[in-house]
């Protein structure tokens, strides 16, 4: 009996020595691909939230914006036993089995920016209201086309949840609110600069009366504006969509674009980390639940456990210089 007590005490001491006195909460911020300015800005906000909450944020993602590459990242994070995964998805459905595996292991899952199907996450944070974004990207073109005309959309991946939802909302807004606008084509640049450049060139070659290219992707909008600049089409084709002010200022300055819009990606990364931490602390993800997103405020979950952060903000010649110094 005495020997058993000694062994038990020895084992208890060993466990205490092997276990940190304080195991810091770890939240993984998983992006579509690394090297993207939008996601780098989101990480700034995520790290700000981490300091406020006293948690560790692991910023990670694949080098290529594919579902297969993200699944590898997810499996690695499961092996690391992180407390939560906050992910901007390259595909809404393909990631579900890997994320279900994560949730089965007790890992909380939040999707943000580009969503995951409901079965693969607990909460989704839209950067803004889908309908409002769709209307905004058409309005950005229509505002500078008083007589209307042909426009085209240069999107990211054809499977990107957020892009597809915005495009459908944009199409729905045209007949009622922008009847002079004629959407001639939707093409996909896969958030790759080279492919987006080629797609923009293809649109210009295929539609000689094209008046605007709308790119609801920070990679695509820069690529399209550069093509318009290089082909001396400034004043003939207006490039607009969703852009980071710091990356896009040169094209507002040179006239390739009249205006673009975006939510604050810093706030988006910040809010995603707060939502993940809410779940870790035991907040229940259910329709009607109100969850904190720190200094950004509070969101209320809808019937799909989704919420919208804020409305898009327009950047033009009057304010692009100011905001380009921020993000």
UniProtKB/TrEMBL annotation:
Location of the protein in the cell:
Periplasm
Which keywords does the record carry?
Signal
Signal peptide segment: 1-23
Residues annotated as transmembrane? none
- GO molecular function ontology, one term from the record: carbohydrate binding
**Boundaries of every Periplasmic binding protein domain copy:** 27-284
* Pfam families linked to this entry: Peripla_BP_4
Question: Entry's InterPro entries?
Answer: Bact_Solute-Bind_Prot2 (IPR050555), Peripla_BP_I (IPR028082), RhaS (IPR013459), SBP_2_dom (IPR025997)
Query: What are the GO cellular component annotations?
Result: outer membrane-bounded periplasmic space
Instruction: Say which domain of life the source belongs to.
Output: Bacteria
Q: Using the UniProt record, give the first listed, main subcellular location.
A: periplasm
Task: List, in alphabetical order, the GO biological process terms annotated in this UniProt record.
Answer: rhamnose transmembrane transport
Give the similarity note. Belongs to the bacterial solute-binding protein 2 family.
Protein name in the entry: ABC transporter substrate-binding protein
Q: What species is this protein from? A: Devosia epidermidihirudinis
Instruction: Give the classification, highest ranks.
Output: Bacteria, Pseudomonadati, Pseudomonadota, Alphaproteobacteria, Hyphomicrobiales
